[in-house]
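[worker-b] picked up task from shared queue
[worker-b] task type: protein-ligand structure
[worker-b] ligand name resolved to pyridoxal-5'-phosphate; SMILES cross-checked against name lookup, match
[worker-b] sequence length check passed
[worker-b] input payload:
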Amino acid sequence: MNTIDRIDSRTTHDADEDIRNRDIKIYVNGEIVPRDEAKVSVYDSGFMLGDGMWEGMRLYKGKWAFFDEHMDRFFDSCKAVSLDVGTDRAGILDALTRTAEANGMTDDVHCRLMLTRGVKARPFQHPRLSRSGPTLVIIMEHSKPVDSLQGKGIRLATVAQVRGLPMSQDAKYNSHSKLNCVIAALQAEQAGADEALMLDPHGFVNTTNACNFFIVRRGAVWTSTGDYCMNGVTRAKVIEVCRDNGIPVLEKNFSLYEAYGADEAFLTGTFGAQTPVASIDGKPIGDGTRPVMARIRQLYKELVERNVSDQSHD
Ligand SMILES: Cc1ncc(COP(=O)(O)O)c(C=O)c1O
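[worker-b] inference finished, payload out:
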């Protein structure tokens, strides 16, 4: 048993247990099959090398929130690594719609859309060995983030693993291989924390292993410059709602000094929207009240509602 198992462990992806997820149907290359029958080859490029891209999305009222933004990132990532999606965004939407319908899902759903370079002819690295077309898998689960996280918050530990430079593995790739982030999560766990706060190669505070990171100081919202971190859709939307509603927001370099002394800190991601940070390296953040994050959370919720209702009228 490791440190975190002994204490009250939590992550930003904690969801209420939903027994319906035991019987979900999963999309695998055009087929929609029961969860236990959903399989990919051991020769698959995703399994062998982490050679693939994915998107996490949320379904609200039968519509995918910020679908266009997710598809922009997905298609850009695939193009950048010469991964032929084999369809256009209408084809992806059709696969998502079929999977949601097969599962009778319309709300409080999280989806992981995954595309790999497909089955390899031989068990080696070169992409030319992936000859039979991509593998597309869609997992949709009934998923509501646990309410208790909004009160308790996430405990972060700063870790030794840093974000990479874009010329090694650009952090903007939502790639199947997340080993950099997984190592960071392990280091945080060993430090007795829930998740990892990662620095950039210059020592500035950057992001966490699975979410983007924001602080609030004297009423202003700060986040990293956007270099070295995932170009999170939720991050962009938080910046947008701040700008549209007169909340000062800065994308800038800052250090742990400013993070420890913040009035509030929170994480962003499609799964949990905005999740408060309780502490960093054992230091409590602020006095536990989070008025700015609460306002942003409400504004973000309203933006999601407008986005899905606009799609209903398309
Ligand atoms: C490392 C990392 N940071 C941040 C995010 C959040 O991105 P988004 O807001 O688009 O869900 C993700 C999600 O995939 C991620 O993997």
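[worker-b] attaching auto-annotations
[worker-b] The radius of gyration is 20 Å.
[worker-b] releasing lock
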